[in-house]
Amino acid sequence: MGTTHGQFNVGGMSCSFCAESIKKAYSRTDGVEDVDVSLAHEEVLVEYDDDLLSEVEVKDTLRDLGYTIRDPDKAKRYEQQQAELADGKRRLLIAGGASIVVAALMGWMILVMGRFESASLAMDLVTLGLALGTMFGPGRYIKQKAFQSLRRRIFNQHVLLEAGAFAGLLGGLLGLFVFPSFPTVHFFAVSVFITTYHILSEYTSLIVRTRASQAVQSLLDLQPDTARRVGEDGSVEEVPLDDLDVGDRVRVKPGESIPVDGTVVEGESTVDESVATGESIPEEKAAGDEVIGGSVNETGTLLIEVTATGEDAFLNQVAREIEEARAMKPGIIQLADRVLKYFVPGVLTIAALSFLFWVVAPLAWGGGPNVQRGAFAALAILVLGYPCALGMATPLALIRGGGKAANRGILMRSGDAFQIFPDVDHIVLDKTGTITVGEPAISEVVAFDTDEVDVLTTGASAEAFSEHPLADAILEFADEQDVEYADPDDFDSVTGKGVRATVASDDVLVGKPGWLSDEGIDLSKAGDDIERLQGRGLTVSGVVRDGDLIGLIGIGDEIKADAAETIRRMRDAGITPVIITGDNERTANAVAEEVGIDRVMADVLPDEKREEIGRLQEAGHRVAMVGDGINDAPALTQADIGIAIGAGTDIAIESADIVLMGNRLGGVMDAYEIGTESYRKTRQNLVTAFAFNGVGVAAATTGLVHPVFAMLAMVLSVSAVLANSFAGQLLSGEGVNTEFAL
Questions:
Q1: Can 34 be counted among the known catalytic residues?
Q2: DSSP secondary-structure letter at 257?
Q3: Which of 33, 113, 232, 371 has its Cα between 20 and 30 A from that of 209?
Q4: What pairs with residue 660 in β-bridges?
Q5: What whole-number distance in Å separates Cα of residue 505 and Cα of residue 503?
Q6: Considering the entire predicted model, what is its pTM?
Q7: Which whole-number Å values give the CA distances from 327 to 37, 233, 452, 732, in the listed order?
Q8: Which of 135-139, 683-687, 725-729 has the lowest mean pLDDT?
Q9: Among 527, 488, 536, 530, which residue's Cα sits nearest to residue 509?
C-alpha cells in the first residue's frame, strides 16, 4: 500500500474554471498528494495515498462536482461522448427555444403593446414558466455543479451563473407578488438568457473536444483486426489479434499491414516504417530484422515471429504516450479566467454588501430600511455582474484570428495557441514531411565517361519493372526530364540490394555501392562522389553497364522551398529552431546545415521525442512542436503548442492545436504572427468588457439602475467587444471566417 496514481477521462469540463474547481476540490481532500487536470483532453491524474482513500472515493469527488467518469475502454468512451453530445444538443434546443419565445414576448411588449416596464399577468406567468422550465429543465445540471462547488467553498462560473439566474427569478417573483414596479418579464428573461448562454458555450466546447478525442482510436485502427497464424505443421489459420501470443508466427503478404511487432524468420522485403520513424524511404528487411505493427509490407512475403502483444505493442505504446502527454500537458489558465477568478467572488460580495447597505444605512439618517432599493441594487449587480462580455472576449478574438488564419490555410483548433504563442521561444521541427517534402526524389545524377542523360536512361530502363519506391523516384525524374527509356528484356530484383536487367543487349546493374562491390564492380573512380552524396544524407545507387560503372544517382528527401526562409523568420522573432528526427545523425545534420538550424536531435524514437520536449519545458521554455507523422503525435500533444502539417497523418492532425493545410512550412510563422496579434485583441477585449462590467456594477450599487438598462449595458459591452474584434477586419474586406472553430 502507499501512493497510487489514478487516471480518469472526465466528461463535462468546458473551461479552465472547471479544471481549477477540480484541483481545489482535491486539494481539500485528505489523502490526495497531487493532481493534474488537462482541460484540452478532459483527463485527470490524481496521486493519492491508498491507505487514506480508495479509488471509489477519488472518483466520487468528480461525480459530486457534477462531472462524469468515462469508461476506460476506448470504444465505450466514444459511445459515451456521443451520448453526451446528444444530451447537450437536446438541452440547447430546449433552452434556445425558450429564449426565442421570451425575446419575442419582450419585443411584442415594446412594439405592439407600447409598454416598457409592465405586462399583463398572463405574460408574467408565461415568462415565469419559461424561466422555471429552463432553469430546472435543461439547466438543472448547472445547479448540481454550483451546489457542490458552494459546499466546498469554491466560487466558480457555475456559482455566479446560478446567482444571476436565481436573482432574476427572485426579482420577477418580487415584482409579481410584492413590488408592482418591478419589471417582472425582464427579470424572468435574465434567468432564461444566461442559462441558455451557458448551455450554448458548454455544448460548443463539447463538440470540439469530442472530435479531438478520436485521435487514439484512429491510431489503433492502423492495425488489422486479424492475422494469418502459421502452425508448426505449416497450416495457416486467420485469427483475431487478441489470440496471438509471443512466439507465434504470422505470414504477411505484399501490400498488407504488418499486424504485430516481431522478428522476420523467413523472407525478404521492403517495409514502409513511416508509422514509427516518419521516414519516407522504406527499410530493407530480411531474416533476423525487427518489424513494427502497423507498418506496411511492400514487396515480398514475410514470416514473422511475434515479440510483443497487447499493451506492449508499438501502436499501443504510442497511444498510451499520447494519453499520458495529454493529462500531463502543462496547464494553461486563460487570461479571461484569471480575471474571472477574482471577479466572481467580488460580484457576489458587492451584491450582498449593497443589499445590506440599503437596508441598514437609512437607519443612520432617521429613515426606515429600504428593502426594495436594496433588493433592486443586489439584483442589478448580479445581472450586470454575469460576465457575458468577459466570457466572449477570448472566443471572439479567437474567431477573428482563426478566420484570418483560415484565409491563409491555417486551422487554429485551440484557444490556448493564441494565449501561449507570444511566449514561445523554441520551435522543434520534425525533419521528414515537415522541413522536407517527405517523398524520395532524385537530388543529383553523376556521370562517368558519359553524360547524365545516358546514366538516367540506362537506370530508368533497368528499373522499369521494379516496384521499389526508389525505382519510382528514378522513373518519375526521368519522366520530368523527358528522358525516353525502354522496358528491359530481362529483369531480376535482388531484395534489399538492387536489380539486374538486360537493356538493349547490355547487362545492367543498379543498386547499392556495397552490393556492386560484392559483384566485382570497380568503384574506385566514384569513391569521393559516393562519400560526398552520402554526406548530404542521400541514398546512393550506382548504375553499371557491361561491368563498367557509368554513373551514380543520389536519392533523398527534397527540402521544402520555403524551409530556409521560415527558419530565418524564426530567428528574427527571437525563437530557437530545433530539428528532432528518427533519421540518422548524418542525414539530419545535412538538412540542418542547409536550412540554417544549429541544434539537431537525431535517431530519436516517438517516446523520446516527447521526453525531449518535456526537458525543454522543465528548463522553463515555451515549446511549439511541428510534425506530420504518427511518431510525432506524443510530442505534438506534450508541446505547449502542437502544429501539424495538414498533408500528414490523421493522428498527428488530431493531436495538434494548429493544422497547416498543405505542405507549406511558412504557415508556422504566419500562425505565430496571427496568434500574437489575436492575443493583443484578447487583452483589449477584456479591458473593454471589464470596464463595462466594472462601471455597471459600481452604478448598480446605487439601487437606481433598472434591470432593462443593466441588460442594455450587457448588450453594449458585447457590441463593443464585437466591434473591437471584427471592425478592422470587415473594413479591410477580409470577412469573417468561422469554419476553423470546429
A1: no
A2: B
A3: 33
A4: 410, 645
A5: 5
A6: 0.57
A7: 6, 48, 55, 41
A8: 725-729
A9: 488
